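Hi R.,

As promised, here are both runs. First protein below:
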Amino acid sequence: QVQLVESGGGLVQAGGSLRLSCAASGSDFSIAAIDWYRQAPGKQRELVARITTGGTTTYADSVKGRFTISRDNAKNTVYLQMNSLKPEDTAVYYCNLLRTWGQYDDWGQGTQVTVSS
């Protein structure tokens, strides 16, 4: 089973940047995509960005032009570069594997991102 570990969160002022990392313990052929989600207090978890195994990327409208998802296959790591951060980006950020049958693996601990105004 592939294990994921998120890191890179922290406290940053509005307008600042952070880069989140999602390190995978391995890979297998049942992965369709790696997604970054976030969950703010009192809100539902929402999809922020996705990168498929073919390299196609998609973003939530709220982060388009500010966030970039990328991967380093040699390091089995997916990154989320977050620029021009806003207070409304404050949330716990999670990465997860979207399997080819449409389900996710168990959710990890996530990494806290706090943007101060």
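And here is the second one, sequence first, then its structure tokens:
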Amino acid sequence: QVQLVESGGGLVQPGGSLRLSCAASGFLFSSYVMSWYRQAPGKERAFVANIVNAGGSTNYADSVKGRFTITRDNAEKTVYLQMNSLKPEDTAVYYCKARAPISRNDYWGQGTQVTVSS
């Protein structure tokens, strides 16, 4: 059974940093593309970043390029999102997603709230 559990969210002032974690279980983690999405109040869920495999390629939404970094630890079955220079517009629920390599089925975590406010 695929499980994704996000953690690390919270309240931070503008310009601050947070590191989100997504602990995975129940599947062959190293084979899956791992992604972060976010959903702000009243908006659709939007892509933030993904990483193909350890040391592999990464992709970022334009709005977070240069501020956010996605990494993964296949041994620990965890994907991280380091968020720096946070802005109020980064406020959202952040979700972790795993995409299966062949079926391309998507699995989601429950989300973690990030609030950027002074």
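A quick note on the second one: The longest strand covers residues 18-25. Let me know what you think.

Best,
J.
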